[in-house]
Amino acid sequence: MSWDDTAPPPFVLLDDPLAYILAAHLRQRAVCTVLRRFATDRVASRAEADRVTAYLTGDLRLHHEDEDLDLYPALRRRALPEDGLGITLARLGEEHRQCAAMADIIGEALSARPADDTVHIYTAAGEAMQAYAASEMRHLALENGVVLALARIRLTRPDLKAISRGMKLRRGVDGA
């Protein structure tokens, strides 16, 4: 994955919220790849560090709200008992909270010494980046393989429109 893969999905995808969420997941994977590189190289350019920090403190939080406030509740309403989604969605919501805490630690490490052109990644920060990336990759596999697959089957057109509207409102996009 390249650095270009960390760009936000186009807002036009908000009309198809499951496609937008999938694109956001691809972006998360790209950010994880960048974090692994930071941890391995033990350095990052200030521009890269700032870009990742902005993602972790901004867009990632919006993405989690998209899922926690819109997607997961809609799925809970539509899922059948045999889907067994209750425990899975509760676990994913808890992982979002854990992810936010890890993202704060990583953001602090990447924001240290803002006047420096190069950010030095110390052992503890590198370990946090590796742990975060590994956790996120498992999380994304579950969301893509189970949650989004069931969402495509269970959610109705009105459900998808409501999810789209919530996502647009969070981003201040017209047409919400």
From TrEMBL:
Residues 17-150 form the Hemerythrin-like domain. It comes from the Bacteria. This is Hemerythrin. It holds the Pfam family Hemerythrin. It comes from Falsiroseomonas selenitidurans.
